[in-house]
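User: quick one, fold this
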Amino acid sequence: MVITFTTQSRAGLLLVILINLSFWLFINKPKKLSKLKSLGRKFLIGLALVLFALQFINIYQGSRIQQRVSQTDTKKDPRELLVKEGLEVFSENPIIGVGLGQFPLYSKYGLFTHNSYTEILAEQGIVGGILLLILYLIPTLQSFRNYRNDPENPFFKFYLTFFIIFLLYNNAYVFYKFPFSMMYFFLIISLQKRCTTYFNRKGLNIN
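Assistant:
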């Protein structure tokens, strides 16, 4: 939520909604409930979502992100053009790119690409792209293995959801360049590692 409004990210706005729906409907789901408790839970979740939506609308109205959404309806968004420029710069410098932080000098907009994957390919070439994918995919694969071995574990559901959302959000925001946003990524990696170790000690083989 913080990153969405501070960066005025429209993609982040959609992902905030997806994250909340995923948590309440997929992650935070008790294994066994009586019919009465199950009905009560659904009612409380529905009520909480309505209250959240009303508060969300209250914050959204008059915010700068609302202005960006309105502007999208009236003029062409250059983000797709920035991604295209990034791929063109990469095709011209495929091995090591043009250097970290140098892409805006090659863009007629003077901006970064708003996409982690094209940004790193343009600035650090295929070498940097491979390293970034390794950094992103190793914890994602671990979360998938954990979930596959214990699909009812809410922690494993949470970690898998986080990494999937994170990979998607990298198509709209260059996370790896900003310590503030990467802090959450490494925090979840640490939590997942501790959780994996804990369940291994309990005798559940999830490797």
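User: anything notable?
Assistant: The chain has a mean pLDDT of 82.
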